[in-house]
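tool=predict chain=A
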Amino acid sequence: MSAIHGTFVDGMIIPDAQPGWVNGTRVVMQAEEDRIGISEEEQDDDPDSIARWLAWMDSLRPFLTPEEEAEWQKARAERKAWELVHWEERARQLEKLFK
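tool=predict ok
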């Protein structure tokens, strides 16, 4: 079956066009805003599709600013140092749990 589009209003989905399905047909619903990335139809391997995919990738903004990333990397390094210092103590505590 092909996908149809519609609008969610007051707890109901109003299709843009009647699909012609029989009563009782099971459907899957997913909000278009929830879609991440490109659809399967957009995943062709021809040059135009690859160019569209690369343009989409280039349009993405970084998740973190450079300052936020530096702060995150610093926190990771501090946590790693703490884990290394406390490794033996934590290993002993775990051993006690399994004796």
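Residues 66-85 form the longest helix (20 residues). The chain has a mean pLDDT of 86.
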